Amino acid sequence: MKLQQLYSYTRKAIDEYQMIESGDRIAIGISGGKDSLTLLYALSGLRRFYPKKFDLLAVSVNLGYEDFDLTAVSDICRELDVPYHIVNTEIAKIIFEERDEKPSCSLCAKMRKGALNQAIKELGCNKVAYAHHMDDVIETAFLSMIYEGRFYVFPPKTYMADSDLTIIRPLIYVSEAEVKGFRNKYHLPVVKNPCPMDGNTRREYVKQLIRQLNLDNPGVETKLFHAILTGNIPGWSIINNEQN
């Protein structure tokens, strides 16, 4: 996927769901993975020509792993002229050492999100951009159906009253395959996830399930995403279908 195509997909999502307004101060949650780095490129580029002017910065939460080196991410943020902030925590120590219970991905995610949101508010941001792409959307719908018994997925834009922040997801029209292509084409400095639980989760199980479905029924992922768009899920009705 070329940069111009990434801009096109991203702007389509932003326009249709009115994700950005003039004067917004938006933080990108940077994990160091291919998805968040792709979003960094998308929003830093759009910032130059999008009609609604907004400020942009990047924030990473360091969970405390010794081998989690964000130097390359810092360098790319500097190259793209995006202020970069790292929030240092001891979340990994709490999850894997201090608790007697089995390590919990949900608790880790909750603590990481709490640290991220606190930092974002302190930096004066009113919105946070997450790098959830089309495959994440489909996988979340499957997770909800299999483990919660309902047809639901997070909306493209969500206001969180408890933190007074709005979450936006500008990559919802970009597939994971396209993100991988973008990573390879532009040599993104991806930082490997050091978590020992990586790849051993319910989401990974669902990812492999959908992959097999798509192998058996080519094009099924597109149909699944269309089902979400037309499934009357709260927050998924297009707000604005006109380009700004």
Throw out a few tags for this protein.
48% helix; 244 residues; Rossmann fold; 9 helices; alpha/beta; six-stranded mixed β-sheet; 6 strands; 12% strand
Briefly, what is this?
The chain is an alpha/beta fold and 244 residues long.
How would you sum up this structure, described in words?
The protein is of the alpha/beta class and 244 residues long. The chain has one domain: Rossmann fold (3-Layer(aba) Sandwich), CATH 3.40.50.620. 48% of the residues lie in helices and 12% in strands. The protein is built from nine helices and six strands; from the N terminus they run αβαβαβααβαββααα. A six-stranded mixed sheet has the order 3-2-1-4-6-5. Helix 2 links the parallel strand 1 (25-29) and strand 2 (55-62). Helix 6 packs across helix 8 (202-216) and helix 6 crosses helix 9.
Name the average pLDDT. Answer: 89
Shape: globular
> For the CA atoms, what is the radius of gyration?
18 Å
CATH level 1 class label: Alpha Beta
Quaternary assembly: single chain
**Which second-level CATH architecture applies?**
3-Layer(aba) Sandwich
| CATH fold naming | Rossmann fold
Tell me the number of strands.
6
Helix content: 40-55%
Helix-strand pattern, N to C? HEHEHEHHEHEEHHH
Strand adjacency order, main sheet: 3-2-1-4-6-5
Instruction: Please give the domain count.
Output: 1
List low-confidence stretches: none
**Share of β-strand residues:** 5-15%
Report the biggest beta sheet as strand number plus sense, adding barrel if it closes: 6 strands, mixed
Distance between the termini: 24 Å
